[in-house]
Amino acid sequence: MKEWVHTPGLGPEVWRVRDLRHNKRNLGEYKGLLEIDLSLVADLIELTQNWPMR
Q1: Cα separation values, 29 from 23, 36, 47, Å
Q2: DSSP string, the chain
Q3: What is the tens place of the pLDDT at every residue in 14-32?
């Protein structure tokens, strides 16, 4: 993911959610598989609300 250079120091919990999100996006984009995982959506919302402002 190209945003790695902009996100040093993030913990493994952030990378786990980002990796899951990225893989789900790829499945939807390239294979047409779109499953909405509400727990993943909730995790993404929490990450963005706690994202450090730079």
Answers
A1: 10, 14, 23
A2: -GGGGG-TT--HHHHHHHHHHHHHHHHHHHH------HHHHHHHHHHHHTPPP-
A3: 788 888 888 888 888 888 8
Cα-based distances in Å from 5 to 1, 8, 10, 27, 54? 9, 7, 11, 24, 14
pTM for this predicted structure = 0.54
Predicted confidence (pLDDT) per residue in 32-45, tens digit: 887 888 887 888 88
Q: Which residue's entry shows tokens 């047409």? A: 32
Tell me the two tokens of residue 14.
């952030």
Q: Which of 18, 19, 6 is nearest to 46 (CA)?
A: 18
